[in-house]
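User: These chains co-purify. Model them together.
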Amino acid sequence: GDSVTQMEGPVTLSEEAFLTINCTYTATGYPSLFWYVQYPGEGLQLLLKATKADDKGSNKGFEATYRKETTSFHLEKGSVQVSDSAVYFCALSDAAGSQGNLIFGKGTKLSVKP
Amino acid sequence: EAQVTQNPRYLITVTGKKLTVTCSQNMNHEYMSWYRQDPGLGLRQIYYSMNVEVTDKGDVPEGYKVSRKEKRNFPLILESPSPNQTSLYFCASNPISGSYEQYFGPGTRLTVT
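Assistant: Joint model of the two components:
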């Protein structure tokens, strides 16, 4: 079945460092891809999304490009801030599947030190 | 404001005492689901519903029940809670067209002793 694999954390960076969190997927259809973020004590919120190959999602300085040839959707940010400390989840939704079911990776915890 | 609400936010209970966690959304979404989040396991889907009176099991449905009598509400029922159901629970909703972006509630932290 469909699945998402993301790099295990925790990831600890200094402020202004470059961030990459790897995410790869397997899917039989043409999924939409998402990054969700969970700040401490809060629910998940959508960070960015891409709905077709070569689309780039971006928000709050974060970017991810939907790469069909490598089945990847890596999250990047050029200069992280302490406020970016959170857990990041990669997810996919297969439009040919159960009409909206999301499959999540296990999450990557990011800690940014001042 | 578009939102998913859950109640209660925190709950401590004892083994075997039936409980219900409510979930409500105001976006007229067809699809609703429940997840549990556990350390090292990420988010696992418990049940989902594609519309009123249509529910189905997710990955970890044992020990849980749901109902969908109204489009906006999707309560999670634990008939006889056990300590292994201690977890953080999230309700989510999304439309069944477009990009299927899910909107999450704030979470319910449940402790079963």
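Residues 68 and 74 of chain B are 5 Å apart (CA to CA).
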